[in-house]
Amino acid sequence: MSDQAQRLRNLVRNQAESPMRNTRIITVTSGKGGVGKSNFTLNFALCLQKLGYKTLVFDADIGLANIDLLMGASPAYSLYHLLKREKGIRDIIYKGYHDLEFIAGGSGFNDLMRLTEEEIDYFAEQVNELNGYVDFIIFDTGAGLSKETLKFIIAATETIVVTTPEPTAITDAYAIIKMVTSLGHEVKFRLVVNRVTEAHEGKQTADKISYVAKQFLNLDIPTLGFVEDDSSVSKAVKKQVPFTIAFPNSPASKSIERLAAQFVTGSAPSETSSGAVRSFLNKMIKLLK
């Protein structure tokens, strides 16, 4: 294990000596399934891409990988082929709408936490290949706090928690924030409230979570924005076309566009150049101990 950690430290040191374009790593998660997390991830990434920020979506929703399905794509290779060393990471990157790049999860992601030290080292080296390649890497994780999801939440630059105004979704969104915090990890969380009927409903939902987080966890959880409830979303899913592409003038599409614009104009994390990926690897080193 010490040899593996040392190899990862060498990667970190090499990054520090070779500054490149900023790469921010974002994890998108939710407390429960069915809140539209993957649909949000995909369309949020598309809006970032349209704004001129090169973005890559990494489908890390273990067992329920569906980013490719939402785009009507059938990639020949997925993370499975990377883990088996049949392909390099650049070989499993595919382009979707607006040249958005993505890595399909496939069945192989179930093997990630059962890798040998050598295989984990290889995975880290491959992730390092993306440093400076894009402006944003977005990990779409599974709902709830599995061991795998926790690792991506901890290692990312920031985490977006997607919820809805439903009481169970609100409770579960707070629960995932509380569980991560209770384990002693400092994570930059932001809230997105999906499927709101009006702005007031979205604000009320976000305020509930922000209040209890401040009251009981002493955490400030800013709200990134709201996405309107819109029948166009389900229609787009059936067509296997992202709703911002199929229905660009729909309420949900306009909501995502405003949210993405607010995201890139807001204050960025302090990590710059190779900092985000370097931080990712540093945290992975700690998780390996």
Automatic annotation (TrEMBL):
Keywords: ATP-binding, Nucleotide-binding
Record bears the keyword Nucleotide-binding: yes
Lineage: Bacteria, Bacillati, Bacillota, Bacilli, Bacillales
Segments forming domain CobQ/CobB/MinD/ParA nucleotide binding: 26-242
Keyword ATP-binding: yes
Gene3D superfamilies per the UniProt record, alphabetical: P-loop containing nucleotide triphosphate hydrolases
Classification via InterPro entries: CobQ/CobB/MinD/ParA_Nub-bd_dom, FlhG, MinD_FleN, P-loop_NTPase, ParA/MinD_ATPase
Source domain of life: Bacteria
Name under which the protein is recorded: MinD/ParA family protein
Natural source organism: Paenibacillus hodogayensis
